[in-house]
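Postdoc handover notes: sequence design on the structure in folder B. Input tokens:
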């Protein structure tokens, strides 16, 4: 078996980057610090928001060789520095990290097809990473440069969908798939090459190394796959299914968004890739037909009569034949039995263990469960980071099964046609109109299909509900939100151009989320619409700290104490008395998880809080900023304190 070609001579998903943290730079002598900063600017280094120096994104070569090779390959990474006088001090203070990103690059291949290089990254177990967007321009330029050197040629567009800096202590996986993509159909037509790599960084004295191992591969030219882990394993299937779903979205966990789910077409493509090609048997030669001949008259030979062979019988007992006499049945040739298809395993009870994935007060969960069991629309309301979208998806999966829900984000341009459906111009040369079902109508149709196939309902989740104009988008839906009226009025009918009337099922599940921090800046929800929802406010849960201690066991207790001493517990009176962040800004558990994740990755808690607090400062008054500044000083968080002091000095009121 030949080795498949890699998608590019250099990765477009993984780069190396040197970082000189602000703390390391601050502890250098003043003269040496100035020399390092001057030399860094000359070498095109940049300064991030936390004061750290970052080198340009350094391309990494994709290794050759077999995927079954256990040792992989190594590449020395040269420290990008031009000033010999300050190089030793800069290299000693520098840390090496991986800059990973999700990328899509395309090249035209005719009027109806493009060659797509779809590159995505995951953690060591193949799970989606928490990533960020938009990508910085230097990374975008580096990815575009590497893509231009790839096999694509005539490159038209390269997009960096999301990115993240990964410290040298972590291993990551990258997958680059070369695909033939049909833009009009929005689907992959052919898999040309697939490569899955494992990456790690290492420092040996004054040298820096990138260790890379090819874990799985497939090549159309080689007509097969090479692997130390199969492409269909849990390590690679998530990444590959995402690439084959032809989504222009990252395989990542973005803030406030759930990772996209693979399409059915992607699963079929992967099944076809992994399924062995059946060996066709040669057709059996036809037996020559007997040629009829003219009978020849012969003298009959006398033979003795042969008594007939008695036909075997089976006696059925009386209790089975429901008669008084035994029933005699002729014995037939045994017929080979076809095994019945195995029944699908029952769906797991996803309510069990839901609180292991999300921290939530028990009474809040009980209210949500009862409301949805009664098919009442549910509105989850809360500040950013309180877990509204995550809770909505977990509730939907608990009632409907894994992945059995539709998730959409409300849009200010929505009309009744987008929500319910209507006539729209069909593509083509002639002017003709076709009915296109709306979001709720499609979800209702999926609900009917789900009930028939699994016996479970299908849920619709509308995220950021108040971003849509309520009267224009949901006016016609108002009455149907009450379960008792759903069988009396159709969602759409023949009068709307639909081929048949579609009704909202009585057990239809609708979950909406609303960010109360944007109330007043977005569309208001009227009383008529509000009363049809069971509104569930989400605040800081009581068991938040216990949840964080359980999910982040490596965090020191002292560090967690400092975090809560500045952010607060969510008890308003207590937080106001101690001048904590939650006294003035509502931040959810997601804020705390992000803080612990960044601190666990090597960032100081001071710089972590400085970074995460910055977006919340614009709406605070000078008095609030001054109070938070004093709290940061008392907790010995100098960088955060300096940021709060500056924000207080420029605050308009």
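Designed sequence:
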């Amino acid at each position: 078996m030949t080795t498949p070609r890699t998608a590019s001579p250099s990765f477009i998903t993984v780069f190396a980057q040197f970082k000189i943290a602000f703390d390391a730079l601050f502890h250098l002598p003043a003269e040496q610090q100035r020399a390092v900063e001057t030399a860094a600017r000359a070498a095109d280094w940049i300064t991030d928001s936390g004061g750290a120096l970052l080198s340009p994104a350094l391309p990494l070569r994709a290794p050759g060789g077999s995927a079954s090779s256990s040792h992989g390959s190594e590449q020395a990474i040269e420290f990008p520095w031009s000033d010999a006088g300050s190089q030793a001090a800069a290299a000693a203070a520098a840390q090496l990290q991986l800059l990973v990103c999700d990328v899509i690059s395309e090249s035209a291949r005719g009027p109806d097809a493009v060659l797509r290089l779809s590159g995505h990254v995951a953690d060591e177990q193949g799970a989606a990473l928490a990533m960020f967007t938009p990508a910085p321009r230097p990374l975008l330029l580096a990815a575009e440069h590497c893509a231009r050197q790839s096999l694509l040629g005539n490159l038209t567009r390269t997009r960096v969908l999301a990115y993240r800096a990964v410290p040298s202590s972590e291993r990551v996986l990258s997958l680059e798939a070369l695909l033939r993509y049909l833009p009009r159909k929005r689907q992959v037509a052919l898999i040309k090459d697939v490569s899955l790599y494992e990456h790690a960084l290492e420092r040996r004295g004054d040298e820096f190394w990138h260790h890379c191992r090819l874990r799985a591969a497939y090549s159309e030219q080689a007509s097969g796959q090479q692997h130390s882990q199969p492409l269909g394993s849990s390590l690679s299937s998530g990444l590959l299914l995402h690439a084959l779903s032809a989504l222009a979205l990252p395989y990542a966990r973005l803030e406030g968004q759930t990772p996209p789910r693979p399409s059915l077409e992607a699963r079929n493509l992967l099944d076809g890739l992994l399924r062995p090609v059946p060996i066709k048997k040669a057709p059996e030669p036809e037996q020559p037909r007997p040629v009829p001949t003219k009978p020849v008259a012969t003298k009959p030979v006398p033979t003795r009569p042969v008594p007939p062979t008695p036909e075997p019988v089976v006696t059925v007992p009386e209790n089975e034949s429901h008669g008084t006499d035994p029933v005699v049945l002729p014995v037939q040739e045994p017929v080979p039995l076809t095994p019945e298809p195995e029944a699908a395993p029952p769906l797991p009870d996803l309510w069990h263990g839901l609180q292991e994935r999300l921290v939530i007060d028990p009474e809040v969960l009980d209210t949500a469960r009862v409301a949805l069991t009664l098919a009442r629309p549910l509105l989850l309301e809360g500040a950013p980071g309180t877990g509204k979208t995550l809770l909505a998806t977990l509730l939907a999966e608990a009632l409907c099964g894994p992945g059995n829900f539709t998730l959409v984000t409300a849009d200010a341009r929505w009309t009744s046609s987008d929500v319910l459906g209507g006539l729209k111009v069909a593509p083509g040369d002639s002017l003709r109109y076709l009915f296109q079902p709306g979001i709720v109508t499609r979800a209702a149709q999926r609900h009917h299909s789900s009930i028939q196939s699994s016996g479970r309902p299908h849920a619709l989740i509308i995220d950021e509900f108040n971003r849509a104009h309520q009267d224009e988008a949901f006016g016609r839906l108002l009455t149907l939100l009450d379960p008792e009226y759903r069988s009396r009025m159709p969602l759409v009918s023949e009068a709307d151009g639909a081929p048949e009337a579609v009704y909202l099922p009585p057990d239809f599940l609708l979950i909406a989320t609303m960010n109360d921090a944007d109330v007043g800046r977005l569309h208001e929800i009227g009383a008529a619409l509000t009363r049809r929802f069971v509104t569930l406010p989400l605040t800081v849960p009581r068991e938040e700290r216990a949840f964080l201690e359980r999910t982040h066991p490596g965090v020191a207790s002292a560090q967690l104490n400092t975090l809560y001493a500045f952010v607060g517990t969510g008890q308003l009176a207590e937080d106001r008395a101690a001048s904590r962040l939650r006294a003035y800004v509502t931040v959810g558990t997601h804020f705390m998880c992000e803080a612990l994740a960044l601190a666990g990755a090597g960032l100081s808690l001071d710089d972590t809080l400085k970074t995460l607090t910055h977006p919340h400062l614009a709406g605070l008054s000078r008095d609030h900023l001054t109070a938070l500044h004093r709290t940061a000083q008392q907790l010995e968080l100098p960088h955060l304190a300096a940021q709060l002091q500056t924000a207080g000095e420029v605050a308009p009121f």
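Context for whoever picks this up: Residues 10-253 form one domain. Don't rerun without checking with the PI first.
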